[in-house]
Amino acid sequence: MAEKDIIALERQIFELTAKLNELRRDNETRPVPDYRFATLTGEVTLLDLFAGRDRLLAIHNMGQGCRYCTLWADGFNGMLAHLEDAMSVVLLSGDPPALQRDFANSRNWRFRLASHGGGEYIVEQTVMEGVENMPGAVLYERQGDQVLRKNSCVFGPGDLYCSLWNLLGLAGLGEAEWTPQYRYWRQPEKMDDGGANLLE
């Protein structure tokens, strides 16, 4: 009986997700300012981040201090080429540009990066009212020199945007039983190469 209930609920979630995406497609846009961001190559505007495209997916990442945001970005990085075929993509955080790039390199991320520096953008374009640095994403559209906010979403354990949670769910695991880490390798007690100059 439980298996039939699971299949029925999966079908219902599938149908509700299709309905959600229809609502998003028809959602009205609203104009937003042409915010400014810092990058390693200098200041850019929100309009610049479109890179000539009509759509921009702005991923709101809390920065290198959040293991959960790192998990989401690791997943998006794997499908970045597919996303960039459809729209421009940028990962935004409050970290300074050099720190963003160092951390991205350590994760093999290929995202374009920009820093909002904790300023007006993240306050006014938050994905959750009243929470300035909430992880999520905003979809912007461009009409000439006008930027329009179309849709947004919040990232969190069990959401639609990180497939890992559904796979963990198959094993009966959730946020209470598993927490993402930056790395899973553990240094062996004895190093066969002698262990000189090994960084922790």
Description:
The protein is of the alpha/beta class. Helices cover 36% and strands 22% of the residues. The protein has helices at 2-26, 46-49, 67-78, 80-86, 97-107, 120-124, 163-170; strands at residues 30-32, 36-39, 42-45, 55-60, 88-93, 112-115, 136-143, 146-154. Strands 1-8-7-4-5-6 form a 6-stranded mixed β-sheet. The longest helix has 25 residues, at 2-26. The radius of gyration is 20 Å and the shape is flat. The termini are far apart. The mean pLDDT is 95.
Q: Give the count of helical stretches.
A: 7
- Got a strand count? 8
Nearest-angstrom radius of gyration? 20 Å
Helix and strand pattern? HEEEHEHHEHEHEEH
Largest sheet: 6 strands, mixed
- Cα separation of the termini: 50 Å
Look at the structure and give the mean pLDDT.
95
What class would the helix/strand composition place it in? Answer: alpha/beta
Low-confidence stretches: none
Can you tell me the overall shape? flat
The proportion of strand residues reads 15-25%
Order of adjacent strands in the largest pleated sheet: 1-8-7-4-5-6
Q: What proportion of the residues is helical, as a percent range?
A: 25-40%
Note the topology:
Blueprint: H1 2-26, E1 30-32, E2 36-39, E3 42-45, H2 46-49, E4 55-60, H3 67-78, H4 80-86, E5 88-93, H5 97-107, E6 112-115, H6 120-124, E7 136-143, E8 146-154, H7 163-170
Parallel strand pairs: 4-5, 5-6
Antiparallel strand pairs: 1-8, 2-3, 4-7, 7-8
Main traits of this protein?
flat, single chain, 200 residues, 7 helices, 8 strands
Short overview:
The chain is of the alpha/beta class and 200 residues long. The protein has helices spanning 2-26, 46-49, 67-78, 80-86, 97-107, 120-124, 163-170, and strands at residues 30-32, 36-39, 42-45, 55-60, 88-93, 112-115, 136-143, 146-154. β7 and β8 (146-154) form a beta hairpin.
